[in-house]
């Protein structure tokens, strides 16, 4: 069988959640972001490992349904983009999902059709655009929106999203924090119990003073770097995913022979090439420069070897001249080493994207880090 495998490490997810919690006051809650199928890790694998989270954040209704179905113990599930129609608002009430309200249409649906006082969805995550210019009410409308919801009996969590939290020194961070605090103070004059949520993973690590009532942590749970200044391991985060494949053919090449599509790479010396059973059809990036893989050699040691030539749909080629590796050897595309953030940098992207764009073709399994290298 073609052995191309995504291994999820529940122990790493649990550990990373604890690393995040250690950064917070005990009163601050963690909304574990599990949108996009838990950043590609799979809801079924991720949820049990994140049972210490206070709630789960998803993008939309279909994801909320999947999370609710997979949850063993009922926990708040929050639609971070809110609903897309009146009918969906009705469904959110029925299922009791929490919702973001970020524009007037959603506000009106909420005002026209109100859940019971005790319902979770009686608390609205009211989104304020403090500088990201993506979702949210602006400076001129946020207070009125809060007033309307509060007057109708809704509880509020004022929320906003950082544009540059990964870069601690970026001047937009202070602008966003100031705006957020100003609006929060104003809203609390008429709705004193209003809670607040500003930080994503990067905010958790970079902005200690604005964790408020809820943080919304995604990437740090999965062990990829949330901040520009630190590697994930420096923050104590462990990769929650290993992507592996195997050597499916080995060729001895003589100087001058080329490898792969467009004959992009030519052997400058006699060399040995391994064909590895993974490609962009599995989600490995095609556009990559100077990337390497980890290979378990004959002596069970992890060796690093460069990818040569173009990544194809099902396969990629690696120069194994300097190691002793055999047919069938395990190849690590990312995991503990190489780390997903190294590969992302070589592909001109970020760990988030590599996790999310894995396809359904690889086999999936769940194992602790130690069980799997
Ligand atoms: C995805 C998302 C997050 C989590 O961001 P990370 O950088 O992965 O921690 C937080 N807030 C909102 C609104 C999001 O959409």
Automatic annotation (TrEMBL):
Catalytic reaction list: L-alanine = D-alanine
Cellular component terms (Gene Ontology): cytosol
Pathway of action: Amino-acid biosynthesis; D-alanine biosynthesis; D-alanine from L-alanine: step 1/1
Superkingdom to which the source organism belongs: Bacteria
SUPFAM superfamilies, per the entry: Alanine racemase C-terminal domain-like, PLP-binding barrel
Domain Alanine racemase C-terminal: 240-367
List of residues that carry N6-(pyridoxal phosphate)lysine: 35
Binding residues for substrate: 134, 313
InterPro entries: Ala_racemase (IPR000821), Ala_racemase/Decarboxylase_C (IPR009006), Ala_racemase_C (IPR011079), Ala_racemase_N (IPR001608), PLP-binding_barrel (IPR029066)
One GO molecular-function entry: pyridoxal phosphate binding
Gene3D superfamilies for the chain: Alanine racemase (3.20.20.10), Lyase, Ornithine Decarboxylase, Chain A, domain 1 (2.40.37.10)
Sequence similarity: Belongs to the alanine racemase family.
Protein's UniProt name: Alanine racemase
Organism encoding this protein: Moraxella cuniculi DSM 21768
Lineage: Bacteria, Pseudomonadati, Pseudomonadota, Gammaproteobacteria, Moraxellales
């Amino acid at each position: 069988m073609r052995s191309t495998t995504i291994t999820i490490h529940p122990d790493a997810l649990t550990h990373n959640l604890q690393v995040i919690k250690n950064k917070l006051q005990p009163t601050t809650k963690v909304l574990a972001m599990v949108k996009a199928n838990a950043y590609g890790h799979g809801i079924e694998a991720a949820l049990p490992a994140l049972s210490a989270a206070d709630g789960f954040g998803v993008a939309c209704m279909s994801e909320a349904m999947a999370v609710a179905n997979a949850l063993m113990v009922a926990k708040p599930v929050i639609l971070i983009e809110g609903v897309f129609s009146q009918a969906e608002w009705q469904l959110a009430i029925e299922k009791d999902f929490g919702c973001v309200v970020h524009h007037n249409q959603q506000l009106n649906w909420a005002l026209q059709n109100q859940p019971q006082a005790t319902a979770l969805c009686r608390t609205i995550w009211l989104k304020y655009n403090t500088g990201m210019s993506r979702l949210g009410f602006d400076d001129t409308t946020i207070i009125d929106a809060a007033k309307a919801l509060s007057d109708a009996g809704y509880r509020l969590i004022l929320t906003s999203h950082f544009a540059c939290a990964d870069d601690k020194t970026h001047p937009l961070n202070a602008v966003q924090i100031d705006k957020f605090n100003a609006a929060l103070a104003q809203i609390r004059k008429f709705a004193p119990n209003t809670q607040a949520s500003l930080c994503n993973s990067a905010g958790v690590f970079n902005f200690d003073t604005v964790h408020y009532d809820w943080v919304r942590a995604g990437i740090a749970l999965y062990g990829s770097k949330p901040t520009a200044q630190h590697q994930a391991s420096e923050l104590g985060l462990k990769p929650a995913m290993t992507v592996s494949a195997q050597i499916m053919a080995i060729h001895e090449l003589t100087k001058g022979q080329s490898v792969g599509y467009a004959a992009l790479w030519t052997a400058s010396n006699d060399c040995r090439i391994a064909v590895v059973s993974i490609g962009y059809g599995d989600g490995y990036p095609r556009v990559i420069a100077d990337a390497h893989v980890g290979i378990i050699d004959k002596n069970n040691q992890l060796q690093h070897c460069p990818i040569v030539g173009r990544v194809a749909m099902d396969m990629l080629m690696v120069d194994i001249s300097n190691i002793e590796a055999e047919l069938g050897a395990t190849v690590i595309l990312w995991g503990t080493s190489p780390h997903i953030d190294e590969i992302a940098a070589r592909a001109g992207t970020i760990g988030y994207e590599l996790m999310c764009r894995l396809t359904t073709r690889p086999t999936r399994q769940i194992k602790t880090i130690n069980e799997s290298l």
